[in-house]
Design a protein that fits this description.
Blueprint: E1 3-9, E2 12-15, E3 21-23, E4 38-41, H1 46-59, E5 61-67, H2 73-79, E6 100-102, H3 106-112, E7 127-130, E8 138-141, E9 146-155, E10 161-163, E11 166-169, E12 175-184, H4 198-208
Antiparallel strand pairs: 1-2, 1-7, 3-4, 4-12, 5-9, 6-11, 7-8, 9-12, 10-11
Pfam family, one: PARP
Keywords: ADP-ribosylation, Glycosyltransferase, NAD, Nucleotidyltransferase, Transferase
GO molecular function: NAD+ poly-ADP-ribosyltransferase activity; NAD+-protein-aspartate ADP-ribosyltransferase activity; NAD+-protein-cysteine ADP-ribosyltransferase activity; nucleotidyltransferase activity
């Protein structure tokens, strides 16, 4: 199992010492995301994952994207998404109220990641993909310009507030970050992706396969 152990971005380290970030093999990658750097996150605490499964059985679930500045991913990958509205961690306005902001449209979330602005610099040659065996350690990302986006599973309950292509989830226990995507040197994913469409849902579920236990 390939695990990302160190990812230095903006001189900050994304570490997986408490979470499992599994690199997807080519056969399981989500093709419409158009990047080889795709990871499945298996990091939810057991209690949260159990609560999520219970809520999913009652209400069902959907998938949506979350975009954020690159320096925020250290915390997101270790602790999951939080409702930062009204706290010191809030980075954008909360036009639709308090909650975690997501979108079924990739273009919206890429915008929150500042795609293409060239403002996010990574420490060259310091990001490593590590298997746990020293001899297999290899360079992961060498780009000085990285952008990240996540694909989350969301409980489809009455609490989920939909404002066209902006979704707001007040309860952080109703959001699990499932995939993490990294783009180098101005790469972009498909900006026309809409996760409410069946063709995209099928591709996402194929990538998840039996690697999570959310059903």
């Amino acid at each position: 199992m390939l695990v990302v152990c160190v990812l230095c971005i903006n001189h900050r380290v994304i570490s997986s010492n408490r979470s499992h970030i599994v690199k997807l093999p080519e056969s399981r990658r989500i093709k419409f995301m158009h990047t080889p750097h795709q990871f499945l996150l298996l990091s939810s605490p057991p209690a949260k994952e159990q609560a999520f499964r219970e809520a999913k059985r009652q209400h069902g679930s959907l998938f949506a994207f979350h975009g954020s500045h690159i320096e925020n991913w250290h915390s997101i990958l270790r602790h999951g998404l939080i409702n930062a509205s009204g706290t010191k961690h809030q980075l954008h306005g909360a036009a639709y109220g308090s909650g975690i902001y997501l979108s079924p449209n990739s273009s919206v979330s890429f915008g929150y990641s500042c795609m293409g602005h060239g403002s996010h610099k990574a420490a060259r040659n310091k990001a490593l993909l590590k298997t746990g065996k020293k001899e297999n350690t290899k360079r992961f990302l060498e780009s000085d310009n990285l952008t990240c986006i996540a694909l989350c599973e969301v409980i489809h309950s009455k609490e989920l507030r939909k404002h066209n292509n902006i979704w707001v989830v007040p309860n952080p226990d109703h959001v699990c970050t499932r995939f993490f995507f990294v783009y180098e040197d101005g790469q972009v994913g498909d900006s026309m992706v809409d996760t409410t469409q069946e063709k995209y849902q099928k591709e996402i579920l194929r990538a998840i396969g039996n690697m999570t236990a959310t059903d």
